[in-house]
Amino acid sequence: MTELTMIILAIVAGAALSMQAAVNGQLGEKVGVLKSAFLTFSVGAAITAVLVLFLQTPQPQTLLTVPKWQLAGALFGVPYIIVMVTAVPRVGTAVATVAVILGQLAMGMLIDNFGWLDNPQIALSWHRIAAIPCLIVALALIYRSNRKTE
C-alpha cells in the first residue's frame, strides 16, 4: 500500500474511533462505563478471532515467542475506552477526540524522536513542534464553543 493510502486509512480509522466514542458514551450513560468497555472489547475480540482464524497469514513469531514487553500494548486500550466513555457525555465527542489526538501527537513525537519501543527514529523538526500549539488552539476553540452563549 502507498503512504497516501495508509494516511487515508488512518483518517477513516480516526473517524471510526470518534463514532465509537459517541456511541459508547451514550451506552456508558445507560448501562455503566465498565459494561460499555466490556462490550467493546468482547465484540472486538470475537471479530478479531474470526479474522485471525480465516485471514491471518503465518508469521515467523507467535504471541508466545515475541518479547513480553510487546504484549503490554494490549493494556493501553482499556484506559482509552474508559476515559472516552466517561468524557464524551460530559465534554462532547469533538473535545474528547481532540484531547486524545493531542496526547497521541505529543507521545508519538516523543516515540519518533527517541526511537522508543524499537521504532524508527524520526527527529523533531519545527514543523512537528508547530503542530502541538495548533492542536492546543483547536482544543481550546472547540471546548469554548461548548459553552452556551447568552
From TrEMBL:
Report the domain of life of the source organism: Bacteria
Tell me the keywords, alphabetical order.
Membrane, Transmembrane, Transmembrane helix
InterPro entries the UniProt entry points to: MFS_trans_sf, YdcZ
Transmembrane residues, as ranges? 6-25, 37-57, 69-87, 94-111, 123-143
Q: Using the record, list the residue span of the signal peptide; answer none if the entry has no such feature.
A: none
Q: A GO CC term? A: plasma membrane
In Swiss-Prot or TrEMBL terms, this protein is called: DMT family transporter
